[in-house]
Design goal:
Helices cover 27% and strands 29% of the residues. The protein is of the alpha/beta class. The protein has one domain: Rossmann fold (3-Layer(aba) Sandwich). The strands form 2 sheets. Strands 1, 2, 3, 4, 5, 9, 10 and 11 form an 8-stranded mixed beta sheet that branches. The radius of gyration is 17 Å and the shape is globular.
Length: 208
């Protein structure tokens, strides 16, 4: 019997978010789909997708991150145009309405500059998503840590590891779902990290 070495997993899938990997296993991301990684950083969540034939796009506020991602794409998927990867704030994406089958936004939304900025980012991610498409977002929230974090002004909190983050709560997320017209693909899933922060996975579909 031939065994695939466990060490090949990292070579194949890289540093992809395990919760995004779950969406791959569920068949929600397919070859040929147009997918935007909003806040793509250096491309850790899209390296495998590039090799798998997904039509990947990326946006990030960091010019250096986009430079690295373009270099990654040129190596892994040379047919992907460099123009697919753009420097942009997530509240002003340079893409047409309803362009993408899937929009990813992993570990980004808690860096919002205000509640208005957070909501504008979510609405912009929704604007570029096709009807029937999936938004996958993972971000820090107050869920599971209510009353245990150092709250500053509004929805800003001093995190135990130092930075100040904008943290939505479940009520705010649900209000956005109702306002925008989102349909849950899965229940909210929140992971508690050492009583220091929580990371919530939000997977919703754009109703046709």
């Amino acid at each position: 019997m031939f065994h695939i070495p466990l060490t090949s997993l990292r070579a194949q899938f890289g540093d992809i978010d395990i919760y995004l990997f779950d969406q791959l296993l569920k068949g929600r991301i397919q070859k040929g789909m147009q997918l935007l990684d909003a806040g793509c950083g250096a491309g850790r969540n899209i390296a495998y997708l590039m090799r798998a034939g997904v039509q990947v796009y990326g946006a990030d506020i960091s010019a250096e991150a986009i430079k690295i991602t373009r270099e990654l794409a040129s190596e892994l998927a040379p047919t992907l145009p460099a123009r697919n990867f753009v420097v942009a704030d997530l509240d002003a994406l340079p893409f047409e309405n309803e362009k993408f089958d899937v929009v990813l936004c992993s570990a980004v939304l808690h860096f919002a500059r205000s509640e208005e900025h957070f909501k504008a980012e979510v609405r912009e991610l929704w604007r570029v998503l096709k009807p029937g498409g999936m938004l996958f977002a993972r971000f820090s929230t107050t869920i599971g840590l209510e009353g245990k974090l150092q709250q500053l002004e509004g929805r800003f909190y001093r995190m135990s590891h130092g930075p100040v983050w904008f943290l939505a709560d479940e009520e705010m997320i649900m209000a956005l779902e109702r306002e925008i017209g989102m349909a849950r693909l899965e229940p909210l899933k929140t992971v508690l990290v050492e009583q220091e922060r929580t990371m919530t996975t939000w997977v919703v579909r754009k109703v046709v």
